[in-house]
Amino acid sequence: MSTRPYTSSVRTAAAAAKRDRVIEAAARSLREDASIATFSLDAVAKAAGVTRLTVYHQFGSRRGLLEAVFDEIARQGGLTAIADAMAMSDPHAALDRLVEIFCAFWNRDPAVGRLHEAMATDPEFAQALIGRNERRRTTVNVLIGRIAGKTALPRARRDAVDLIFALTSFAMFAMLRADRSVDEVCALVKSACHGALGPLLSDASRSGSRPRRPGASSITVAVF
User: Do 194 and 99 lie in a common domain?
Assistant: First the structure.
């Protein structure tokens, strides 16, 4: 009887376990090390108890490892809840829920801040993180479309998307969090987002029509 399928599954499981161990070691390094400059494949490999070659084969580069860490933090940090928020029938309530999700996520793990710091020293990783942030912009754009319908002027819609994208960013959260509780930050961001909708709602009022509210089945969900 051949043992190859069993051997293959064991190897796959072992490789997955090593990958998880490396990601955890990398995240721990980002949380605890004094400077992002000390983050390297060699240092992470040593902390994870594997060879540098193992890390390289799994992730390809420092950027690849940082991306994997961010994806895992996003998964653990509850960003999968974005899909449920986008399925809410009331887009205004969905926007409030989106703010809550990101406030909780930005606050959950100090490694998130270190990953954003890495943008300043790693241009390749900066591009990857910018790409992930653009998913958030796409999500905001979908919600604004539901709120504004076809009545808003393109400029007003773009302004609202840009403002809410900025308001829900890590940089905004970190600045506001300096002397506020998470709940206070969340309430302030919600209020500012509501304010950003003002021109859109004015456009709808002037047109004499109500914004369209599509059902959940027609919503495109973009997860950060």
Answer: yes
